[in-house]
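Listing S7. Sequence submitted for prediction.
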Amino acid sequence: MRIIVVSQIYHPTPFRINDIVAALIDAGHEVKVITGLPDYGLKKIPQAYRWGRRRREWIDGAEVVRVPTTARRTGVFWRALNYASFAVSGWLYACFCKKDFDIILNYETSPIFQAIPARRLKHRSKKPFVLYCLDLWPESLKAWQIKEEDWLFKISAKISAKLYRSADCVPISSPAFRSYLETHSGVPSQRIVFWPQHGETHFAAIDGTVTQTGFFDFVYAGNMGSVQAVDQFLYAIPYMQAKRPYRFHFVGGGSELTNLKSLATALSINDRVIFYDQKPASEMPYFYKLADVFLLSLASDSAIALTLPGKLQGYMGAGKPIAAVAGGAVSDLIKKVECGVVSTTDKPKQTAAQLDYLIENERARWEMGRNGQKFYNNYFTKTAVMDKILTTLNQLMNNNETPYSYIYEKE
C-alpha cells in the first residue's frame, strides 16, 4: 500500500506515530507524512527548521513533508494559532499534492482540526480515510473550562461530528470512546475499531528491574499540563506517613510545570520532589528503571475520564505497579488488571494512604507489576497493535469495510 499520514506532530518529537510509520515501512508499505514544524514542548521552532529549511526530508524510509506552522510559544492565543496554521497549511497542501496514495491515515491528537487536511485528501482522491482518534472532541475542550453552552464548544461539536463522520474508519485508543462517537457524533458503529496505543519495547525490557538508590522512588513521565492534573500528587505528599525515605520524580515539560514548581515550594515539599526537563526517548529507560512505582493522573472532566493515556501501556510493560489519581477508563482498567492502586481526584488524604500502602507492601507491588506486564504482553505490545492496524487497513483496501474489533479478545 501507499499510505499518506497526516499528523501535526512527528519526528523528532517522540510520539507513537513515529513507531507506527516505521512498522508500516517494515511491513513493505510506502509512507508519506504530512506534518508541521517540530516545536512540541519547545515553545519555539528549532533553528534547523526556520526560514524554509528541511521542509521535505526522508526519515527512516518515510518521505516527510513539513507545512508552515507558527510557533507554539506560550498562552492560549499562540497555541490556537499554531493549531490553526497547521490546519490551513495542511489543507492547502492537500489541495495541490499528487494523488499517488492508496489510503489516508490521520493521527488525531488534539485538536481534531488537524483532520481537515486528511478530509480534503479524501475528497480529492476518493481513497479510504482512517481517522485514528486519540483525543475525543469537542469533549476535550471541557478541560479548558469551556462549557457545552459556549459558542466555541457548539461550533467545535459541529466540525468534529462532520470530520468523524467523513472517515471510512474511526479507530479509537480507548474503548470508552465508542459510545460517545456513536451518540454525539453520529459515527456508525461498524466504522469504529479499537487500536490501543502500544507500549515501547525498550520499557518492556526493564521487566520490573529497580535501580537501588536508598530511596523509594515514585516516577511520573510525560507532559504536565492542566489535563494531566499532576498537582494531585503534590497535594498528597504532606499527608504521607511512610517512615521509609521516598522521593517523587517528575520528568517532562508542559504548560503547568512552572505552577507545579511553585506549588511544591508553597507546600514545603521540595526535599521530596525533583523536576526534570523533557528528556529524549533515549534517556527515558533510566527513569523507568529508577521507579519503584509509576504515577499517573488525569483531570476528572468527562472526556478526559474516557481516555487511556499512552503512558499507561508503557508503565504496564515495564512490570511495575501504578499509583493513579483518575476515574473512568484508567480506573476501570487498573482495577480490572489489578496492576496498581487508584484514588479519587481532590482527595489528597486518600491518595497519600494509597502511596503509603505501596511503600510498605513489597509483595503487593510485585503482584501488581506482574499482572500489568502479563496484560501488556497480551494486548499492548507493538506487534499486537500493529497486527490490528494492518488488519484494518488491508480490510479497507480490499473490501472498503471495517472489521469489527473486539476489545480484549483473549479474555
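Caption to Listing S7: primary sequence and predicted C-alpha cells for the chain studied. The chain has 15 helices and 14 strands. The domain at 2-198+381-399 is CATH 3.40.50.2000 (Rossmann fold).
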